[in-house]
Amino acid sequence: MKGKSIKVNYLARVEGEGGIHVKVRGDEVKDVKLNIFEPPRFFEAFLRGRKFTEAPDITARICGICPIAYMMSACHAMEMACGVKVEGPIRDLRRLIYCGEWIESHGLHIYMLHAPDFLGYDDAIKMAKDHGDVVKQGLKLKKIGNDLMVLLGGREIHPINVRVGGFYKVPKKKDLRDIAEQLKWAREAALETVKWVSTFDFPEFERNYEFVSVNHPDEYPFNEGRIVSNKGIDIPVEEYLDHFEEHHVEHSTSLHASVKERGTYMTGPMARYALNYDKLSKISKEAAKEAGLGKTCNNPFKSIIVRAVEILYACDEALRIIQNYEMPDKPYVDVEPKEGVGHGATEAPRGTLYHRYKIDGKGVIKDAVIMPPTSQNQPSVEEDLTEFVSKNLNLPHDELTWKCEQAVRNYDPCISCSCHFLKLTIDRE
Amino acid sequence: MSDQDRILIIGAGNEFRSDDAVGPVIAKKIYQLYSERVKYIKDISDSTNLIEHWKNRKYVFFVDAVCSGSEPGTVYRFDALNEEIPENIGSNLSTHTFNLGEAIELARNLENLPENLIVYGIECINFDFGQCFSKEIKPAISKVIIKLKNEIDELVYVS
Fold first, then answer.
1. How far is B43 from chain A (nearest CA, A)?
2. A113, A184, A187, A314: most buried by Cβ count inside 10 Å?
3. Is the ipTM of this complex over 0.90?
């Protein structure tokens, strides 16, 4: 083989717009570029001068799929800057609304965006013709996630009930009991989902990733914890920028990120799973085992199974929180502005989302740094593609192109977050 | 089945984006006129939920702003189950999931379509922040309200 190019101009079934260009010369992959050509969105710039209380609502607008992640990272960062810690039922409700976002986001990705790759369909609409019951199950599961977001957040996209210090209004015990019945169905459906996706055919492909995730001593991570990796990082969130850095590359309007000492890393379901397996609930561990997953999964194509395990965990965790819930006397903790710097890292469905804010004594934001998971994962996507194409150059062009798109979707990239994105080119000569 | 379970008005669009508000404003007006007989929704932040809303309904009316370059105030009407929906109607329901045409196709494959789905579109010009309609489209809003009233009166009368 002399050379060729794999080109996908607009990658489908990802959040946002972008493309991939793979350049092959002889039997060697010379270059892989994940082209992100959406214009930058300047959120960090226009946060300056706004009140610290506005950050959750402003940053929620970065993404329609994971607004809770933005709200939570912003709240935690502001609370850290102001020296406030939120505990008890308000903290539990934050985990609960995060469960809703994981169920909704993972449900959408598994059923509507990723499963068609494995079953040989261009999209979920065509898949629905042959697998109607499966798609209906996926939509119902996703809707339950949305319902949980509506119940706690006021609406499913860009919720309006989250504030620094807690919520504007909290649910009564009865409100949560009503949704618990739906969540019981969802838990069963999630269990079936794990079994279903584990029957897919997965390419033989593994990489030695540096996994990075939030890690909490007692719980599978949503909101809080240290930042850890399987290659030695174990730091408080305040030291995030000491170990991770962002840099600009010519072919992407979205910044890339790397571990300063080593380079590429992966954040997201596979990283969370590998670094927090022991915190999963019993039913989630059993389902993972039955699906053939070990305590670590290094095959990115199997991320769909890990996502299904995480939906199961989110349903189970939501039910646990609801069962123990006692309505707080006040829906929020008062947070007075204090000059300082605050950091927040929480687990968006796609991976760790880091926020850092500097505020003055009146609570005015002086500067902001936001590192979305898709930005952090971009170099890892490119390395996956380099290695995958190198090992599969003999595949027919169409099949290789399909697999490359699938390899990108393994990450459930959200280009709206990283700035937007997708389009694949394999260039051979 | 009560009229309320049979007839649904969906108003797509952002109420704070000037002309884009034609969908929600018209849907709300129709609901105010027929509150006993119709249900209406105006906040379609997730287009996959449309399928849930309209399945098992007998009549669904979908109203949206259109931006196709035609004369402002032009009114379009489509029988969505039997005609092709132009891409610029219901195209911005969500950046993350489906446009109206895709939601219809998905619902068709899931056998979750309503029995009748009528789409009204109004050619609009101003989508900036604001809560005022352009003068060119105000007559079209009244026109669509009258057309919808006539259609619903007929349905109610027939039943």
1. 9
2. A314
3. no
